[in-house]
Amino acid sequence: MSTKPTTGRPADLPETIRHWIGGGLLDSADGATFPVHDPVSNTPYAVAAAGGPEDVDRAVAAARAAFPGWSTLGNRERARVLYRVADAVEAREERLAALETFDSGLPITQARGQARRAAENFRYFADVIVALGEEAFRAGDQQINYVVRSPVGVAGLITPWNTPFMLESWKLAPALASGCTLVLKPAEWTPLSASLWPEILTEAGVPDGVANIVHGVGERAGQALVDHPLVPLISFTGSTDTGRHIVRSSAEHLKTTSMELGGKSPVVLFADADLDAALDSVVFGVFSLNGERCTAGSRVLVERPVYEEFTRRLAERAERVTVGPPADPATEVGALVHAEHYARVLDYVEIGRGEAKLVAGGSRPAHLPEGNYLQPTVFADVARDARIFQEEIFGPVVAVAPFDDEAEAVELANATEFGLAAYVWTSDLKRGHRVAHAVESGMVWINSHNVRDLRTPFGGVKSSGLGREGGAHSIDFYTESKIVHVMLGEAHTPRFGAS
Ligand code: NAD
Q1: Which of 184, 242, 473 to mutate to test the pocket of ligand 1 (most atoms within 8 A of CB)?
Q2: How many CA atoms lie within 13 A of 32 on its CB side?
Q3: Which of 492, 407, 421, 403 is nearest to 462 (CA)?
Q4: Which fold has domain 16-261+464-483?
Q5: Residues lining ligand 1, CB < 6 A?
Q6: CATH class of 266-446
């Protein structure tokens, strides 16, 4: 274990991160582990259990055993438990933020926001499950047809390393609200904050075995979950390549899948927009969460009359963004999650230098000689076929390009394989809606960055995903709907064989 000092090392950091199966903290059946690094020193600070098929099998068995009890609890009862989970998350806000910051490199002020969002996810889905009715369809006095929803069974949840705890809560809350039991496979680069779930869920009264966690590398632990015949549903958030692979693997057992994948979301900025507000929003939208954000507005398309001015102001702001140790409250951009990811982002910066004009950033800040730091980086005059225009970089790097009219703006916005989010800036109400409707994406914000409303559908089109979660969509996903047809009048039945 490294003794190297790291900025913001939380007190009582666990040295071992174990699976949580059937209410017990367990090592892998074969004893395998993997090292976990922090993104400031890039040295290992803990070892985590590396799960495989046997561990997933144990977790699925525990979840199946807990299913009859949890799934038949009344909605109100489950909601009460979920409220207590939210309280238990909030009670640990400081601890959670400290762990998340240390493990993922997120600035501490933004990690605190994640704890509040996580708690809100539990409260929200508790409300949804209590308020949501089931549909009924009446056909005159003759027939009434009604829907019965039942939880699908053991849900498989697979999550990425960006905002890990919050994204885990985004799946745990609706799965538990719906009455599913589950196995969660957290991202291997950021397993630390997930180690709080056992105490949070137990304190809130979630029975043993209802929620289980198997840590490990995606290709082994994640794959075992995807391949398990008794897990009928996989909710996945991660990269497009992994998502494609999981959909292919899921076909074997015809699993229900939800895929929340990568993005390269455009900001379409017209000359009549409030440029000051747009500038704040663009800077925050692409550089917050270290730029490791699926909905980042990472392509900024600017109408020609304001292109030069906006690009210059964006570059100036990017140069002034405070990059620093994640635990420092003054930090706006922290350390990228892992040395491997950092190298990948730096590769894109090098590619960008050959493809476009670098107008801000592009290198490690001089005052931070160690750690995965990058000054927010702006490339201007980026052509549509450039790799930095087409590919998800997932770091503090933005590509800027001009357009001449609305048609070209829409064409450029749609010129990648992705379709997660889009942002439109204009003072023309009609044009705002027109462009929002024409852009190929699952979500559009007009005159704003990503401000979420948990009731709305969340997801992408094209290579950004399959299906929608959020609000009642999440409950639809974690439940099966059965229709019951009831004949109230006389059914007119042709009398075969009667004459
Ligand atoms: P990733 O695809 O590498 O890993 C995501 C998860 O999948 C991890 O837990 C990993 O262990 C697991 N995994 C890997 N291979 C697997 C396999 N064969 N079978 C089962 N599981 C496997 O993604 P990442 O690098 O952790 O996350 C970054 C990506 O996530 C970005 O592309 C980002 O856009 C995307 N993302 C999307 C959303 C969204 O809502 N659309 C939200 C956050 C992140």
Answers
A1: 242
A2: 15
A3: 421
A4: Aldehyde Dehydrogenase; Chain A, domain 1 (3.40.605)
A5: 158-162, 167, 185, 187-188, 218-219, 222-223, 226, 237-239, 242, 245-246, 260-263, 294, 392, 394, 420, 460, 465
A6: alpha beta
**Rounded to an integer, what distance in angstroms lies between the CA atom of residue 210 and that of residue 231?**
14
- Residue 60 phi/psi, 5-degree rounding, is -65, -40
DSSP string for residues in 34-76: EEEE-TTT-SEEEEEE---HHHHHHHHHHHHHHHHHHHTS-HH
pLDDT in tens, 136-181: 999 999 999 999 999 999 999 999 999 999 999 999 999 999 999 9
- Is 3 a residue whose pLDDT tops 50? no
**Which is it for the CA torsion 78, 83, 85, 86, positive or negative?**
positive
Query: For residues 343 and 117, is the Cβ–Cβ distance under 8 A?
Result: no
Bridging pattern class, strands 181-185 and 211-213? parallel
Give the chain's length. 499
Q: Does the global pTM surpass 0.85?
A: yes
Dihedral of the CA atoms 19, 24, 30, 34 (nearest 10)? 30
Token digits for 489?
């009048």
Domains of the chain, residue spans: 16-261+464-483, 266-446
d(CA 11, CA 498): 82
Task: Measure 433 CA to ligand 1 centroid, in angstroms.
Answer: 32
For 272-294, give the DSSP string.
TS-HHHHHHHHHHHHHGGGG--T
Task: List strands edge to edge, sheet with 19-21.
Answer: 24-26, 19-21, 211-213, 181-185, 154-158, 233-237, 256-260, 465-466
Question: For atom 13 of ligand 1, which residue has the closest CA?
Answer: 218
Q: Is the pLDDT of residue 2 over 90?
A: no
For ligand 1, atom 9: residue with the closest CA: 187
Angle between helices 164-178 and 108-131 (to 10 degrees): 10
**pLDDT tens profile 349-393:** 999 999 999 999 999 999 999 999 999 999 999 999 999 999 999
